[in-house]
Known about the structure:
This protein has helices spanning 11-23, 34-43, 60-70, 84-92, 106-128; strands at residues 3-7, 27-31, 48-52, 75-79, 97-100. The chain is an alpha/beta fold. The longest helix has 23 residues, at 106-128. The relative contact order is 0.16.
Amino acid sequence: MKNILVVEDELEIRQLLANYLRNEGFSVSEAEDGVAAIELFGKEKFDLVILDILIPKIDGYGVCELIKSKSDVPVIFLSALGDERSMIKGYDSFADALRIIRSSSLKSSVIFTLSSLNVYCRCLRSKIQ
């Protein structure tokens, strides 16, 4: 079973993503801050990391750089930061993809993100078959 790490400080969003992924048949670990994410990443093997940028203790950029220095696991940034500078910094941190979540349309942004994750999930499944 493929293992996914979801790093998000907002409980509702983290649970929504984790529940969706579990329902799709994936094993999911959750972290609410950068330190917890790095600790989990050091203890388990992950096939995908879904990472918020604005998380406590170590921000998503720092977490991504640490993960990418040790592994080639795909990292998808989820963030409300949609300005060009933030997006460039995300890719400079070696993120594989970046999805913007707008607070004005949180539900539709999360639905769009979940549909994008569905594509990643199918790709992960096809790699093991």
